[in-house]
Amino acid sequence: MKVLELARRRKTVRKFLSEKPPFEDILKAIDAAKEAPSGMNAQPWHFVIVDDPWIKERIREVCEIGERKFYEKVSRKLGEWLKEKGFSPEKPFLSEAPYLILVFGYTKAPYWLHSTWIAVGYLLLALEELGLGTVTYTPPNPRAVEKLLNAPKEYKLQVILPVGYPADPKPKYERKKLEEVVSFNGF
């Protein structure tokens, strides 16, 4: 499939079928992600794949603790939007998805943050091509997850991607029109 088609088709998925995709497909997607460009070719990303139910449940627990704290402090406008969209501090997709892919960035590398997120973009499109769904979940308390997984201190968690076959009937959010996001020769 062409990249443009994949980008237009890809949507956020928070509900998954219980059927576990082949592990080889997860590795194929990460193999594509590792081809992303990076500052000074440092390739500062590290991918942790989790399929152990106990570990997924612990990750969910620590993330939901952070989510509850976040929801207590959220602004009124954002709080209303979250409620309208049906969001809450509960994140069942963290334990229900067959796999979690946690993407870490090596903070000692130049341009590590930008480079790691480019790899995440590649990963999202590769998962879509393989018929797998995900959501880019950024926990409000990444340090708690880093500790849980014994991540070295110079690696920072950027995103958790729950991965599986989509079972989310919700359509893709509408995207802005091209003319709304493009200008020429200046802003």
From TrEMBL:
<feature type="domain" description="Nitroreductase">
    <location>
        <begin position="8"/>
        <end position="165"/>
    </location>
</feature>
<dbReference type="InterPro" id="IPR029479">
    <property type="entry name" value="Nitroreductase"/>
</dbReference>
<dbReference type="GO" id="GO:0016491">
    <property type="term" value="F:oxidoreductase activity"/>
</dbReference>
<protein>
    <submittedName>
        <fullName>Nitroreductase</fullName>
    </submittedName>
</protein>
<keyword id="KW-0288">FMN</keyword>
<dbReference type="InterPro" id="IPR000415">
    <property type="entry name" value="Nitroreductase-like"/>
</dbReference>
<dbReference type="Pfam" id="PF00881">
    <property type="entry name" value="Nitroreductase"/>
</dbReference>
<dbReference type="InterPro" id="IPR050627">
    <property type="entry name" value="Nitroreductase/BluB"/>
</dbReference>
<keyword id="KW-0285">Flavoprotein</keyword>
<keyword id="KW-0560">Oxidoreductase</keyword>
